[in-house]
Amino acid sequence: KTYSLPHATDADGDLITYSLYLHNWNEPTGLFELDANNNNNLLLKPLKKFDREQQHLYLLRLRAENKDQRDVSIDIIVII
Predict the structure, then answer these.
(1) Where is the Cadherin domain (predicted)?
(2) Whole-model pTM above 0.85?
(3) CB atoms within 10 A of CB 80
(4) Which residue has better confidence, 30 or 56?
């Protein structure tokens, strides 16, 4: 399932970019990837196999940022 991300620009016309982090501000290398080819949708691609008999809980932070380093973020809970 995908969720629409706003295609936005700041007051100077600079594009707003998105990045994904774990709750401790590390990139979730090896766990999930934000679909960078499609900046219009939030699509988390799992990068590893998860055991269906175990529950996995991840707190991710989606960050929107412009080139002047002004940003906003939202936390996302992923339960597998």
Answers:
(1) 8-78
(2) no
(3) 11
(4) 56
